[in-house]
Amino acid sequence: MTTTTSSIIDGNAFDEADPASLAELSPSDRDLVLRRRRALGPSYRLFYERPVHLVRGHGSYVYGADGQEFLDAYNNVASIGHSHPAVVEAVHRQMAQLNTHSRYLQRGVIDYSEKLLTTFPRGLDHVMFTNSGSEANDLALRVAEAATGGRGVVVTSEAYHGTSAAVTAISPSIGRFALGPHVRTVPAPDTFRLAPPEGIGAWFGARVAEAFTDLRRNGYAPSALVLDSILSSDGVVTDTSVLAPAYAAARAAGAVVIADEVQPGFGRTGSAFWGYARHSVTPDIVTLGKPMGNGVPVAAMIASAAVLEQFGTTVPYFNTFGGSTVPVAAANAVLDTILNNRLADHAERLGAQLLDDLRTLQTRHPHIGDVRGAGLFFGIEIVAEPGGSQPAPARARAIVNALREDGVLVSVAGPHSTTVKARPLLSWGQPEADRFITALDDALARTAAR
């Protein structure tokens, strides 16, 4: 039997097969882990060396079965805060009134769609609803293929775009076995370890061009370049010079550009609101997911009229739950909360302060090789030797688990699982920022000898 290691799933996973790991759990948690495996099967993973058994969430915090409070510095679902009252009320009110699909004429989905589209530049004209970011990316690939007549797709080498068959085939971080023959990967623009003379953006654009050329040489006409706008699974890339050359290379090859905004979107990366906008570029298709409903399954694909025309006029589209009334009510409450409370601007301000604080920590902890951030989205690169660039996955894992024990939840990313990845919620304020920096300082000190 062939097995594979997934950088996105296994980098911070609990080892259920290790008797010693199981023995360290409380009897009730150990029983729950064993029951979980029997019921759910072997594919699922739990976070952390000692899994967190959660029972409640409120604002920027979640709470364990034993009463321990955890600062959530990672969750990309409840982005405006756990159990947010506006979302709870909107879902309760709509569920008590009506919940049905979008083939009936309803005002809610139209009002929300018009409001959502105002956050995009002119030309990104239409929205189509799905249940998840995976479905949104799946739909985007279908639209791109209809628009271009090609199937060839280029992604980064540690990309993650979802779990359907089509998007697993363009998600190398899940495991290389899954890649389709119509897919080519390019190295992410590593702004820490790579300094090409032509500049990191030009270097990245050239790799994208080469990948499309190779696809065409092997019988796959170009269809799409799919990029998470902050390259989060590749280790969090925030340099704003990298997307424009890649977009240009894709379009020169005859492909369309799909911006996956499931992680960086809805203000998480700051006042630009959408991750791609930080780079002063406009994609042809944008996909949305996780934070859109603050925990209620709702996602969407945004597309230009020109790119959508071929698919839209030849393929009738319907999604039972995508665009249904209760998820749309949740999404509307989330968007109103972000816009009315200027949470994207808040993310910009608080994120800039946190980035300064993290760089101060870097001067005191030489095993931090690099710090990258945009808004409330950070990558903290952990290295083996001071002043070096050798990845240190065991050290990064130790830091993440030390934070877990101190009541702060983060995880890892990148090809070697050496980037400590932090995504503070938009509900964070100064107390949460201070607690995070203090806990990280302590975790770095406690793991320095490892």
TrEMBL record:
Belongs to the class-III pyridoxal-phosphate-dependent aminotransferase family. GO terms for molecular function: transaminase activity. InterPro entries: Aminotrans_3, Aminotrans_3_PPA_site, PyrdxlP-dep_Trfase, PyrdxlP-dep_Trfase_major, PyrdxlP-dep_Trfase_small. PANTHER family: ALANINE--GLYOXYLATE AMINOTRANSFERASE 2-LIKE, PTHR45688. Keywords: Aminotransferase, Pyridoxal phosphate, Transferase. It comes from the Bacteria. The keyword Hydrolase does not apply. This is Aminotransferase class III-fold pyridoxal phosphate-dependent enzyme. The keyword Cytoplasm does not apply.
